[in-house]
Write a structure and sequence with these properties.
It contains 21 helices and two strands. The chain is mostly helical. The chain has a single domain (about 5-395), classed as Sodium/glucose cotransporter, CATH 1.20.1730.10. The longest helix is centred in the middle third of the chain and has 36 residues, at about 265-300. The relative contact order is 0.18.
Length: about 500
Amino acid sequence: MSPTLLLLIVFLYFILILSVSYITGKGSDNESFFIGNRNSNWMLVAFGMIGSSLSGVTFVSVPGAVGKDNFGYLQITLGYVIGYIVIAYILLPLYYRLKLTSIYSYLRKRMGRVSEKTGATIFIVSRLVGATARLYLVVHILQIIILDKFGVPFVVTTLIIIAMILLYTYEGGVKTIVWTDTLQTTCMLAGLVICTLYILNHMDLSVVESWHALEAKGYTQVFGTDPMSSGYFVKQIIAGAFITITMTGIDQEMMQKSLSVTHLKDSQKNMVTLGFIMLFVIGLFLYLGGLLYLFGEQEGITATGDALFPEIAIEHMPAFISFIFIIALISALFPSADGAMTALTSSFCIDILGINDKDWEEKKRKKVRKQVHLIVAVSFVLMCILFKIIDDGSMIWLILKLAGFTYGPLLGLFVFGIFTKRKVKDSWVPYICILAPALSYLIDHYQSKIFGDFQVGLELLVINGALTFLGLLLASKKNVLNEDLESFDEVKTK
């Protein structure tokens, strides 16, 4: 397929998204931007969140990782289901009871203003890193297969993509994203299914025959059985659960969409449904990954990792399938980036600047919110350029590794707040949240000297959170919670 036609496809797709955003964003205000006026349909939110949770990294990296890790990623996905259930029945009741717009407002109620700002800052850094890493991967692929052919520099490509996302999120925010994510998730999953069916047909294999072929290559191996290895199934499942709790349950982007649902019970259905759908979809991505490696071997293709799927889809499949791949790839790109930009804007405005305080006029709130949104967009551009410099060829594991350092303090803060009634010294919280990741880094760097043959993998997130919790415990004293804030036991009974 010619680069000109591919570029036209991208342009037409963006016009479609912009049209949807124009229709859904009419009459939007700050309440619409931040939490969609709390009237989103839970089924739309659940379906759209599939795209937000998966992103372009999943679309490319998960199939590509099969050659190295087989179906081992499914272990983490089993942990995801556990994490989603914890979010539904522990965190969401608390957020709804307190009627939060930003979930980090909970930290102010529970610990103090400094704790709120610390939690929000950690989220901003964490989500900025994670979202831009995901964004970079897809921009990088579009650059190689389309824009390089026109001599367009990577920086210009990044600016164009960010400008597209900015245009359709600028007014409507969450109110718009609920609808655009639904459309984009549909396109992404359709692309996944069509590419899978094409490869099966091209190789003249039934599903059963292809499974036997994958088994013969060892690709279907899921569970790691060596307790000393970082891929041991217990470690991976625990890590998956905590990754979900942190990167969804205490992440403003994901919770912002859930809190836009009117009723708690519907939001809980959204979360549990999402968990089981994710298990199925990731399984399908892994299955496609195995097929891609079988296809590559048959056709003499040497590409592996993140480069495998794009190479096969663009260079070794009919134009129609290349078209489908590009649409699906872009559909995987936008949901993870648009929600992140909106959530970062929301958290900075509410938690750092405090624009929901009573002394802010509505006109001033809207002006500041738009200014912050522009600054977030510029930050995305700069971070994509940074990832261009440090790209090592497999972004999915880099993102999960970074999450262990950045989300650990958030995990410790929320666990301490929900499961204890102790009063922490608010001014000490930032120092504890810096010290815990620093210690975690040292543990990770010197783990062979500390643990011998025992390997610490993604469960570093849990270690980081535990160190944060311990620090908060040491910097706290016994205290009865304020009457307007519920402890964990009170949340359970309501």
